Amino acid sequence: MKDGRLGDMPADEFEEYGRRAVAWVAEYLAHPERYPVLAKVAPGDVTRALPAEPPMRAEPMEAILADFERAIVPGITHWNHPSFFAYFAISGSGPGILGELLAAALNVNAMLWKTSPAATELEEVTLGWLRQMVGLPDAFMGIIMDTASVASLCAIAAAREAVGEHRFRDDGSSGGPRLRMYTSEQAHSSIEKAGIVLGLGRAGVRKIPVDGRFRMDPAALRTAIEEDRGAGWRPFCVAATVGTTSTTSVDPIPAIAEVCRAEDLWLHVDGAYAGIAAIAPELRWALAGCDRADSIVINPHKWLFTPIDCSAFYCRRPDVLRAAFSLVPEYLRTAEADQTAVRDFMDYGVQLGRRFRALKLWMVIRYFGWEGLAARIRAHVHLGQRLAEWIDADPDFERLAPTPFSTVCFRAHPPATPEEALEPLNTALLEAVNASGRAYLSHTRLRGTYTLRFAIGNIRTTEEHVRAAWDLIRAELRRLHDPG
Ligand SMILES: *Cc1c(COP(=O)(O)O)cnc(C)c1O
Questions:
Q1: Is the pTM of this model over 0.70?
Q2: How would residue 483 be classed by pLDDT, with cut points 50, 70 and 90?
């Protein structure tokens, strides 16, 4: 913008730089391998490359884009790199990125139906499609949240609202029963964090032991609930996991649902990663029993090639969710909502302002199609199984958990290496692989054992990438273990 002129960037300038930005993105997506996966910067490097003071005068786009390349991109860890195998690999796919662009251009706020009818209705339609794709019944209302963490927070708030004998919403927790919820030792930290935020405290979140395959033990759950009732707690919710973060284990949802029915507890299912697998017919088993859950979250931004953030939250008791969250001041009232003809999504969660996230998800589903999406998930699971076979066949490595999907837990364990030497060896191995810039893995700890995690989920990942990373891991192990 020219100094002294008001208004936005002129249309011709937008078009010029818009073309350049899109060209940059196209080139980037075609060759993400030209960058190291893990950013090779030290803390503070990016800050030092940027002026400490804001620009007083308008700056040309030319200079801004040049600085993007010079100062920002080197500090980027490339989640879109096909050799990103850390945490859960995710993808910003072409149609998803274009959806983000259009949503940013429209810049609507989907807080009320009236504030953009298409945003609300597309969200309903698209989440209806996704619900059908994963095989959940129609009774589940869908709403898009930013993250699974926030979806689980809302689920647990609804579970608390469903406790009949105390009005938490109106009276707060003082004077109410001491609430307790249950989740497995392998559950994501967001569940416990939700307990902290909702005032249950960490004491209000009881962790149930897992079996040899890292799945919640329903008998232990039953015993814990019984014990707690005896001790004066009010059990109210179980948060089970389909695809735990460390090993992608799947809790036995049918048995847990049975406990919840018998004990009258809200069942929330955290399927952030693996719930998506259910779109492939042969992986539908992942959500078996979830039709009996009260709520479930699955993340299109994790394994459905939709740019972060986009988390699909389904609730079978939307009235309870609404009762927990709806608070409508005069300035947000509309005739349509008063006539209950429409859904105002602000009534079903914490935030008022809501991005138009449905657009990118709608584009992703349409562009790839249900079959195309399922084929990509299937390919990732196939690659995960291949890698598991390679690890099992190599005497220098061992797998440390079953591999139900596309995430493999393992460690280097050369024969005759003493146990106490294995953690330093594997820590050094992970460090060496990641420092190469050619692949990026992360770690976890399973029953005290330091464990490497290799998560396959990026849309651009092929067998070649997995093979190359596996060869790199073996080469680095040889170098570390046998430096002579
Ligand atoms: C990744 C993950 C989460 C957190 O997801 P966000 O959308 O980043 O909040 C929660 N639960 C499980 C099982 C996960 O794998």
A1: yes
A2: low
Neighbour-count burial of 6, counting CB atoms closer than 10 A to its CB (0-12 exposed, 13-18 middle, 19+ buried): exposed
* Ligand 1 and 306: CB distance under 6 A: no
Pocket test for ligand 1, best of 79, 153, 273, 304 (most atoms within 8 A of CB): 273
Domain span(s) for CATH 3.40.640.10 in the chain: 109-355
Per-residue model confidence as pLDDT tens digits over 194-231: 999 999 999 999 999 999 999 999 999 999 999 999 99
Q: Calculate how far, in angstroms, residue 148's C-alpha sits from the geometric centre of ligand 1.
A: 5
Asked if 99 and 360 count as a contact pair (C-beta separation under 8 A), the reply is: yes
Segment 326-381, tens digit of pLDDT: 988 888 888 888 777 899 999 999 999 999 999 999 999 999 999 999 999 999 99
Q: Is 273 in the pocket of ligand 1 (CB under 6 A)?
A: yes
Tell me which architecture the domain covering 9-38+77-92+369-484 has in CATH.
Answer: Alpha-Beta Complex (3.90)
Q: Is 272 in the pocket of ligand 1 (CB under 6 A)?
A: yes
86 CA to centre of ligand 1 in angstroms: 14
Among candidate residues 306, 274, 303, 301, the one with its CA nearest the CA of residue 290: 274
**Tokens representing residue 482 in the block:** 């046998």
Domain 109-355 has CATH 3.40.640.10: yes
